[in-house]
Design a protein that fits this description.
The protein has helices spanning about 65-75, 90-100, 105, 115-125, 130-135, 200-215, 295-330, 360-365, 390-395, 415-425, 510-525, 530, 535-540, 545-550, 555-560, and strands at about 5, 45-55, 80, 85, 140-145, 165-170, 180-185, 190-195, 220-225, 235, 240, 245, 250-255, 335-340, 370, 380, 385, 430-435, 435-440, 450, 455-460, 465-475, 480, 505, 505-510. The chain has about 600 residues and is of the alpha/beta class. A hairpin with a 2-residue loop joins strand 24 and strand 25.
Length: about 600
């Protein structure tokens, strides 16, 4: 159901100067990717601008402090309140976004080699098989500025260059997160340092310059803009050949705003929700062992939060500048603007220090707004969408054929499509992570920088009648939360010390767990259509499409006796198949299934 979105009051805001900034002059360069001309006038095909922030939260209300985003995007578009990333970590999430594949299918599962980063993206063969390539094949010019992937660096940016871009200006490691000492690299030029200037201010100039360049080309275009804000400020002195030689040497600091925004929001604090620095521990695995934060720690984290809000003001100005430049060119109404982030963020929830990498709602349920031709204005939809859906959505906008190996579905962008999706779209989200979790704040006494064995598989199942989070850790700890009654995810229904519940959704708890575990068992290794239609793998006759239908008593024997549980063989830092436990292989892939599935249809 679509409902009007009410604009929330702002504590304070500044007017944007972005539209008064002169764009950088286009450099005469041979294009990196092919410039495919099309026979149709550009005006008949919509343009696309994709703004991708870094680590922006939804649940700590960061959008409430972004006046221009509210005015230009939220008021003029549709907000997707149940949009999720599928891996709460920068590089895996971005590769998923640009390929339409979950991390277990890209095998890019971390931020640095050997399990992630730009070198891993290259080794998996994606440099010639991802979104900008497909858009160029569809007749679009493609432009990008900002962060592309982690470990895309001053040492490896040209070995090889990122393919598929008509023109680009990439933010490079090890300076990606150093707000006042960024390094950008345009097309095939050598990197240029912008020491002393704010990274997002520089990015705004580059984005507006690329937008002018795109309009002048006369072709429909895609422009990706990826500011570093509101990520923590980071310097990595141990950076060699595209890799952090020792992640423990990375120096973390609070985000750094532009000077003109540095005094804003002095009274802002992390929202004091039930799960903020609770008196009793929550969660499982290493999270359940965290100590309560001291008052000094909490005050520092409030400062960290304010710095994030201040850093986001530059992104707000960026959005204002892009919209005004589109208006100046007369193409705003023929342009889709998509605003989202790679993953969410937590500060203090469940006693966690500033960071991401968990499957709690703060880390995975993230901002996502779309405005454009035919998109309902000032509306909110609660259909389930994920980052795997962006590649098919953008190809659909471009009028290009969709690929049959996408793990996601195109997102509906009209009132009719959104209404139909409330009746037919899937209700689940698959979440996965490998390796360590980091603490990005100051290390107070009793705290450590890294927490190892943060490998898990998780599942969100959401409908009008239930809202569940189920997770299995690599140490085989289990978690289950009912967000209808426990929105802060404080009471693990599978922890005997925390609950005496014997029923959930009107049936014995173990019956719900059996269905959820079987569903996640399929999803943890799903490919293509099985990722959006996993119940078909369990019930090939097609009688089940939702958890509610799967809870029918006639399936009790099947789920109680004939199913395979999720079990990890060991914890690993990346996706190593023989550590992942038994795998379900869809029979449509014509592979042998190592489980005795017996269906009671």
């Amino acid at each position: 159901m679509m409902v009007a979105l009410k604009l929330l009051p702002l504590a304070t805001f500044t007017l944007s100067l972005a539209d008064n900034i002169a764009p950088l002059e286009p450099v005469n360069q041979l294009p990196i990717g092919p410039q495919l001309q099309i026979s149709h006038p550009a005006a008949t095909r919509p343009n696309i601008i994709f703004v991708l922030t870094d680590d922006q939260d939804l649940h700590m209300q960061s959008l409430n402090y972004m006046h221009h985003v509210q005015r230009h995007l939220i008021d003029q578009g549709t907000s997707f309140s149940r949009h999720f990333c599928t891996t709460a970590l920068c590089c895996p999430s971005r590769v998923t976004l640009w390929t339409g594949k979950a991390a277990h299918n890209t095998n890019v599962t971390n931020v640095n080699p050997p399990y992630g980063g730009y070198p891993k993206f290259l080794s998996q063969g994606f440099n010639n098989n991802y979104l900008p390539i497909w858009l160029q094949e569809a007749g679009y010019n493609t432009y990008y500025t900002g962060k592309l992937f982690n470990a895309h660096s001053v040492n490896n940016y040209n070995s090889p260059h990122a393919a598929g871009w008509t023109s680009s200006d990439f933010l490079l490691d090890p300076f990606t997160y150093w707000y006042m000492n960024s390094t950008y690299q345009r097309n095939r030029d050598p990197p240029v340092s912008y020491e002393g200037r704010h990274s997002v201010e520089v990015l705004t100039e580059k984005a507006l310059g690329l937008l002018d360049e795109a309009v002048e080309s006369g072709n429909p275009f895609f422009l990706g803009v990826a500011p570093v804000a509101p990520h923590a400020n980071i310097w990595a002195p141990g950076f060699v050949d595209g890799n952090h030689t020792d992640i423990r040497d990375v120096i973390f600091g609070v985000p750094v705003p532009e000077e003109k925004h540095s005094k804003l929001f002095n009274d802002a604090k992390v929202p004091r929700t039930e799960n903020f620095n609770p008196n009793q521990p929550s969660g499982a695995s290493w999270i359940r062992k965290l100590p309560k934060q001291s008052q000094e720690n909490v005050e520092y984290n409030d400062h960290f939060y304010r710095q994030r809000l201040r850093a986001l003001q530059s992104v707000d100005d960026l959005v204002d500048g892009l919209v005004k430049r589109l208006e100046r060119h007369g193409i705003l109404e023929n342009t889709y603007i998509i605003y989202t982030t790679d993953n969410g963020y937590h500060i203090g929830q469940h006693r966690l220090q500033p960071a991401k990498q968990c499957s709690f709602e703060e880390d995975i349920n993230i901002p996502m707004i779309i405005r454009g031709p035919g998109v309902p204005k000032n509306a909110v939809t609660d259909i389930v969408t994920t980052h795997t859906d962006f590649a098919p959505t953008l190809l659909k906008i471009a009028g290009a054929p969709l690929r049959d190996d996408f793990d996601g579905l195109a997102i509906p962008l009209t009132s009719y499509g959104l209404e139909q999706a409330t009746k037919s779209r899937h209700e689940h989200v698959t979440v996965e992570h490998w390796g360590f979790a980091s603490n990005e704040g100051t290390l107070f006494e009793g705290w450590q920088r890294l927490y190892w064995n943060n490998t898990y598989k998780a599942l969100r199942v959401i409908s009008s009648s239930y809202d569940l989070h189920y997770q299995v850790w690599c140490n085989n700890d289990h978690e289950l939360y009912d967000l209808k009654t426990d929105p802060g995810q404080m009471r693990n229904l599978l922890d005997q010390e925390e609950t005496t519940s014997t029923k959930l959704l009107g049936v014995p708890l173990e019956r719900v767990v059996a269905r959820l575990d079987s569903l996640l068992f399929v999803l943890k290794s799903c490919k293509a259509g099985t990722c959006t239609r996993p119940w078909e793998a369990l019930h090939p006759a097609g009688s089940v499409e939702t958890l509610k239908e799967a809870l029918s008593p006639r399936f009790d024997v099947f789920y109680a006796e004939k199913r395979q549980n999720i079990v990890f063989d060991r914890c690993e830092m990346g996706f190593i198949l023989d550590a992942e436990g038994p795998q379900f292989v869809d029979k449509h892939e014509r592979a042998v299934v190592d489980i005795n599935w017996h269906h009671f249809e």
